[in-house]
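Forwarding these from the shared drive since the link keeps breaking.
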Amino acid sequence: MRNQSPDERYEAFQVLTRFGHSAQYGHAIALFAVVCGLAVNAFGSPPTDPVSTPLFTFDANSPSVTLPSATLHPDEVLRIFQPDLQPEPAFNSTNIGLGQPGDDLDAMSFSKGSIPPNQEFIFMFAVDRNTTGDVPPNPVLRSSEVPYNVADQAARGHAAADAFITLSGFTVNGPAARALRGPVLSNSQSKNQYDEGGHDFGGKPETGSRDYSSAPEDGVNGMAYEMPESARGAPGPMPAFFFSVAPMSPSLLTLPGNSPADIFVHPDPFVPGISPQRFTSAADIGLQATDNIDALLVLDHDDNWQFNDGDVIFLSLSPGSTSLGGPVPIPNISSNGAADILSARFIDPVTVVLEVFAPADQLGLIADSDNVDALEMVFCTDPLACGLGAGIRLIKGDWDNDATVNINDFPNFVTCLSGPETVDLSSGYDPLCLDVFDFEFDDDVDLRDFHRFQFVFAP
């Protein structure tokens, strides 16, 4: 059979829609699928109002640093210089006192010391490979074609190299109560591990948000904007760079501190020849030397590179850290404590308050295995609106992901047609069908969905 032109296929589609709910419908669309079958591109659609990609690190178990062909290392701060390019080092790791084989940069932050106390923000965070989330996507975002969150991406097999934003708002003093409208016990995916229209980390597996994968996945374990970031950008001066390193990193023997819960500072990591210094020790902020800081956000109030009056540190600890479950655990930690965001506030030279600042459920993380593995902030006064604008999208009905629902998507609707009963995914039914064509979110693809499909169809 010869190939039909787009105009001919559209005319055929119009004819088919006249069958309505008749028994002939199924036979007709099946024939149409043979005529118009097309390939699938399973990437998601970029955010409508994205935040920029921060500098980041991959952990020591990431295929991007462990494969024989890998050129990246777990102690390197990486950047995406231009959309669709591969990650590259932003500066030499020796600049900050690392660079030995086995070093792993575990958390990092540029100072946000200039933020006013009433500035509202949301957290952007990453999770590890054991995180499941277990909280469904926010229903408002899902119905608005922003369906991806931690639980969704973990189920698809590639959440560890993504970035997510909270749907709860905060100031440095605590939750911004007036921003908590609508369901908040969830989060929204703002960065993918691989290509999502340039809004990604260039990591592995090389899949989009819509894909399912069992391939080894990279793990983002550090994120840091070089300047304060808002949903539309807010330039500022270059601040100092703060970081911690993973346990067993050889450079802990030569850095000015030997604990993975010590925080180090470098005045400008882009300039070689300057030695880092210790910003604060584990003990100075109420932690144990055996703890491990694996997510970090520093507000150095006076930018003097010392933990003193007015300074606030937001952090998260890795699972198993002594302060999460030892003889004297931090009060009010939830689950295993590794998904809570803690704050350490300098009150006076003998008083530092270490407490839970944002419990795990405010991030949409409630499973016992959940773990925050990187941390940043994004200026935002309406978390739900920012989640909608900065979230990676799935355009309902757009199977080939060209931002248009048209005749090219129709053959796949035919393939996905299941009838008005909940489908059994264990039978081999493609779960992507429900993502793209289940307009009613009732776990099937039937004629009711076809009715909605016609409304979004563009010639």
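-- next protein --
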Amino acid sequence: MKSITSGLVLSALAVTLGTGLAFADGSAFTPLNFDDTAYNPGYSTTTQAPESAGNESMQSAIQKLDTAQIEVRNELLNYKTQFADIDAQYTSYKAQRKAMKAQIRSIERRIKQIDAAKEKIRKNMV
């Protein structure tokens, strides 16, 4: 049963790849190559205005994307800086908390020692 299923899968894969190769044009499409007439044998472009307008709008779109990318990277840098500041504060607060907790424990021990001493004195008085 496995051999039949794997055979069907392999044959479907071969047909899919073969179909893609059969419909392939043979030359790669490059979006920046607008002057190539091999793809448009039925007509020729005599006016250059639409192509230059298309190129200008593409260049404008690329520049806008570059600007947006720079803004996003700057925003990321700002957030990373803020995160580093907060992380430094957190580390500082954590160390302060640990030191304060140790002081509280030592004071609580001293209070217990004083209470124990008071109890001993009371027992000796009676």
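The mean pLDDT is 80. Helices lie at 2-22, 49-125.

- D.
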